[in-house]
Amino acid sequence: MLVCVATLPMANAQTFARVGALPLNPGENYLRSAVIDVDGGFAYFGTDAIPGIVVKVKLSDMTRVGALTLNAGENQLWSAVVDAAGGFAYFGTSTSPGIVVKVKLSDMTHAGALTLNLGENTLGSAVIDAAGGFAYFGTLTSPGIVVKIEVGVPTPPAAPVGGVLSPVDKLAIVAPYLSLLGLVGAVLAVAVVKRKPRN
User: How many angstroms separate the CA atoms of 100 and 115, rounded?
Assistant: First the structure.
């Protein structure tokens, strides 16, 4: 099986060209799903094999880094999503019922599997809300079924760059201004008294 890559810079579509290809190992056939970790520089391809195989490819030099053969029954990886920040990818199988397999990206290990309910078969599509902590897998059934999967703890809001989040005491912020206002009031009161005409 070959993995091909092409580049298409938006500024100049005429550079659209085949750059190279990576032949994978025997048995790593029929790549049906893929996800990318742009920041990490890797892509992960799921095969249509029995059992399924996840192949890790380094994008900078198009080299095969490794592969993970899944467990018996975790066959034909037709869909996939990735939580790159969390360090996991989730592959959906073309089985009845479907299975969602969790793969740890750093060391390419099997991190768990979730077998869905009867009728939730052949997971042919998937999307992820990594910040919210959920993935959604679509079945190739009639009617179709969208299955919601909890994949992790929601990502907390990012702290300001170069700053530290700390509790704010609003009274402590306002107190100096209140003191200043009181002082101004006292000064004005004294001035009024001094200017008061004597009988």
Answer: 7
